[in-house]
Amino acid sequence: MEAVSNTKSVITVGDKPEGYEGAGFLATSLEKVVGLARKNSIWPLPFATSCCGIEFMATMGAHYDLGRFGSERLSFSPRQADLLMVMGTIAKKMGPILRQVYEQMAEPRWVLSVGACACSGGIFDTYSVLQGIDRIIPVDVYVPGCPPRPEQIIDGVMKIQHLVETESLRRRDSEEYKVMLNKYGIE
Amino acid sequence: MEVPEQEKLVNTLKEKYEDEILHIETPYNFLTIVLRKEKIIEIIKFLYDHPDTKFQYLTSLAAVHYPDLKQIVVVYQLHNLVNNHRVRLKISLSEENAVTQTLTPVFAAANWMERETYDFYGVIFEGHPNLQRILNVEEMTIFPMRKEYPLEDQTREDKNDSMFGRNLEQNAK
Lengths: 187, 173
Known about the structure:
The structure holds two protein chains of two kinds.
Chain A: E1 20-22, E2 25-27, H1 30-39, E3 44-48, H2 51-60, E4 83-87, H3 95-104, E5 110-114, H4 116-120, E6 141-143, H5 150-166, H6 175-183
Parallel strand pairs in A: 3-4, 4-5, 5-6
Antiparallel strand pairs in A: 1-2
Helix pairs in contact in A: 1-5, 2-5
Chain B: H1 3-17, E1 21-25, E2 32-35, H2 40-49, E3 57-66, E4 71-80, E5 85-94, E6 99-101, H3 110-121, E7 124-126, H4 168-172
Parallel strand pairs in B: 2-5, 6-7
Antiparallel strand pairs in B: 1-2, 3-4, 4-5
């Protein structure tokens, strides 16, 4: 008796990187392999300050589950994290602390700015709120919203994944990158 | 607080401190007493100890800036937990010389409340054990809640004033 199922099971498998394939092996470039490995195991550092932090908690929960993307292990130690997720309002008093956390992260590191307050100060255009974390640290992906829904945060993480996958292995040693860091005053 | 109890409180206060009371009003039935600033700590301690009043909980200590009157008014809100009575005491200080005594010997809670009042209005509390900024950045030189300082961050270049209902020519007048 055949089992009848009403749901169409559509399982998609990620794209294979280009390379030379044979029986039981695939030869490809190191960059592609490293990119693939890194993108599926990003360990985030959740720098959650306000309401966006709550949306992040929902994203990590079972319903939306960021763990599916490899971010199962959160780390509050900057040394062991790849992705700094800044979620919430950053006051000017918090700025130097955020900068210190960013500086302590080991290369390669990415920054995801979640929510209107982290991207640009949000509705808090005041004397005490930092008008966007990109005034003090370089940001890779911005997720707008107040707060962004978990689906939007996941979309931001997927864009980070794309950046991670396609990044050149030599990027962090390049002159361009150093110049960019110097603009923020980071050596 | 019902009106007879309010009057009882005012009479208890008038026994010793009649000269210090400047004005009594009851906005929304909340007894508010405006006093002279010299003996305010004594008066609060009197209200703390007196068996008929026993205001032994400091609900809040804050300041208000009236630039037209050139005054900074410090507002103390006290609460009697036993009988559930509340009272508001106000003293007024001048803008240029906003100095008064600290309330920390009477209420320990006044410590941080006075630091916040100093941080935002520049009111100096003499005798305070640690009068430093508490919420703002330590290097800040202004007192942000005073009316002459704008709310907005001044380093933004992209905000179009006309879209926020502000007209620069009108403001410059």
